[in-house]
Design a protein that fits this description.
The protein is α+β, with helices and mostly antiparallel strands. Helix content is 49%, strand content 16%. The strands form 3 sheets. A 5-stranded antiparallel sheet has the order 8-9-10-11-12, sandwiched between helices. Strands 2, 3, 4 and 5 form a 4-stranded antiparallel sheet that branches. It has a 3-stranded antiparallel sheet with strand order 1-6-7. Helix 2 packs antiparallel against helix 3.
C-alpha cells in the first residue's frame, strides 16, 4: 500500500514534465505484465518457468529504472522550489533592511531639524536679552557727566583717571572695499586665455569671463611651455563671481604680445617687412620696465646693459624658443639691447637665464631696424640647438652680423669684454666706463 502511494506521488510530481505521461503509461503496462506473470507462475501451471522468470526480472528492472527517473525529477523539482523560496526570502529581507535604513534616516533628519529649531529659538532669546538690557540702561555715568556737567579746569589740573578711561573712544578698524568688492592676487597658473577674454581661477573655481579683446585661446598652448618665472602676479578686483578690473592690465598686454610672436616669423626677413614686429616695441623703454616689470633686471649683467642704454631706447623683449636634439621645447625670457655710437650700432642679446652667454651683433645706424628684425626672427623661431648652431655656422653669423659672444663664468671678465661695445658719450656711460 505504501509503495502504491509513493508511486502515485511520483506520478503527480512528474506530470508537469513533458516525458512524464509516457513513462507513467510504460510503468502501468509493466505492472500489468507483472500481474500476468504472477498468475502464470502459480503451482500446477505448465508454462515455461525459465522464460517467465527472465521476463519477470526484466520487467522488474525496467520498473526500477522508471521509478528512479521519477524520483530524480521529484528531487529536482523540490530543489528548484526550495531555491525559489530562498530567493523570495532574501528579497523580503533586502526590502526590510532598506525600509529600516530609510526610517532611521528620516528619524535622524527629524532629530536634526528639531535640534536646529531649539538652537535657533535659544539664540533668538539670547539675542533679544541684550537689547532689552541696553534699552533699560540707555546712559552710563560717564555719558551723564558728558551731557549735563561740563567741568572747565586749568591746564595744570589733573583729570580723574577713571573718567578719562571711561570717555576714551574705541579704535576703529580700516574700512573694507566698497560693497562686496575685494582685491585678490592671482598667479599666472590660475589664468586661462580665451578668444576676447580671460578666465581667472579663484579658490579652486573659475570666475565669470573677463572681457579682454587682445586675448586669444591658442596662447594657452604657448603658455604651457613658459614658466612666468619673473612675471608679477595680477592684482584683480572682484565682486562675488565677477571680475571688476585688473589693476596691472599692462602686464597682461605685455605677455600677450610676448607669447603671440613665438615661432611665427621667418629666420631672415626681407627688407619689405622690416620693422613689422620691432616697431611695435617702441614703448618698452627703461621707464616702462621700472613701472611694470621691475624684476627682469635684478642680475648684475642685465642691470649693467640697462644702464648703458639711453632712456628713450627700446629694450626688445625676445621670447627665446629653446629646442634641443631630443625635441624638448621651452620658452625663455631674453632681451635685445641697442647701444649706438656715431659710426655703428651694437645689438646685445642677453638672456634672463643664468649661465647663458651674451651675443654681440654689429649693424649700421641706417640698417639697425632691419638687423634687429633679423636677429629677433632667429631667436623666436624653432631652430634646434639655436645657440650652438649660431656659434658653428659662419654664414649665419655674417647674415646676422655677429661679432662676439661672451660667457658668464666670471662677472668681472664679462664686464671687461662687454665694455668696448658700450660707447660712452653720456655721463651715465662715462660712469660705466670708469667702473
Amino acid at each position: 500500500m505504501e509503495q502504491n502511494q509513493v508511486v502515485a506521488r511520483y506520478r503527480a510530481e512528474v506530470s508537469k514534465n513533458p516525458e512524464g505521461p509516457q513513462l507513467d503509461l510504460q510503468l502501468a503496462d509493466i505492472e500489468k505484465n507483472l500481474d500476468t506473470i504472477r498468475q502464470q507462475l502459480t503451482p500446477g501451471s505448465k508454462l515455461d518457468l525459465l522464460s517467465l522468470s527472465n521476463e519477470y526480472q526484466h520487467a522488474q528492472q525496467k520498473k526500477q529504472a522508471i521509478e528512479k527517473q521519477l524520483k530524480k525529477w521529484l528531487d529536482t523539482g523540490l530543489l528548484q522550489k526550495q531555491q525559489k523560496a530562498e530567493k523570495a526570502l532574501q528579497a523580503i529581507r533586502t526590502v526590510h533592511q532598506r525600509v529600516e535604513s530609510e526610517r532611521n534616516e528620516v528619524n535622524g533628519l527629524v532629530m536634526q531639524h528639531t535640534k536646529r529649531q531649539l538652537e535657533t529659538e535659544k539664540a533668538n532669546k539670547q539675542s533679544r536679552q541684550p537689547i532689552v538690557k541696553s534699552e533699560k540702561k540707555p546712559a552710563t555715568v560717564a555719558e551723564k557727566v558728558a551731557e549735563k556737567v561740563k567741568i572747565i579746569q586749568p591746564k595744570s589740573a589733573k583729570q580723574p583717571a577713571k573718567l578719562t578711561t571711561r570717555l576714551r573712544l574705541p579704535v576703529l578698524a580700516p574700512a573694507p572695499l566698497s560693497g562686496l568688492e575685494q582685491l585678490i592676487t592671482v598667479e599666472w597658473k590660475d589664468i586661462q586665455f580665451c578668444d576676447g577674454g580671460l578666465l581667472i581661477r579663484h579658490r579652486g573655481s573659475f570666475l565669470n569671463r573677463f572681457y579682454f579683446p587682445e586675448a586669444r585661446q591658442y596662447l594657452n598652448l604657448v603658455k604651457a611651455h613658459y614658466t612666468f618665472r619673473q612675471a608679477p602676479p595680477l592684482q584683480v578686483k572682484i565682486q562675488q563671481r565677477t571680475v571688476s578690473t585688473i589693476l596691472n592690465r599692462e602686464v597682461v598686454l605685455y605677455y600677450i604680445r610676448f607669447l603671440s610672436n613665438t615661432g611665427k616669423l621667418p629666420s631672415i626677413s626681407s627688407p619689405d617687412d622690416s620693422g613689422l614686429v620691432i616697431h611695435k616695441f617702441a614703448q618698452y623703454t627703461k621707464q616702462y620696465y621700472r613701472n611694470h616689470l621691475p624684476d627682469f633686471f635684478r642680475t648684475t649683467s642685465m642691470r649693467y646693459l640697462c644702464e648703458a642704454m639711453d632712456e628713450e631706447s627700446c629694450i626688445v623683449p625676445t621670447p627665446e624658443q629653446v629646442i634641443n636634439s631630443n625635441g624638448v621645447n621651452g620658452i625663455h625670457d631674453s632681451f635685445l639691447f641697442t647701444l649706438k655710437s656715431p659710426k655703428a650700432a651694437y645689438i646685445i642679446w642677453e638672456s634672463a637665464e643664468e649661465g647663458k652667454a651674451t651675443y654681440v651683433f654689429k649693424s649700421t645706424i641706417a640698417t639697425l631696424a632691419q638687423s634687429l628684425q633679423n636677429i629677433y626672427n632667429y631667436i623666436v623661431n624653432d631652430t634646434v640647438n639655436k645657440r650652438s648652431t649660431l656659434c658653428r655656422n659662419h654664414r649665419l653669423q655674417e647674415q646676422l652680423g655677429m661679432v662676439d659672444w661672451i660667457s658668464h663664468t666670471n662677472y668681472s671678465e664679462w664686464k671687461q669684454r662687454i665694455r668696448p661695445y658700450c660707447w660712452q658719450p653720456t655721463p651715465t656711460r662715462a660712469r660705466l666706463q670708469a667702473s
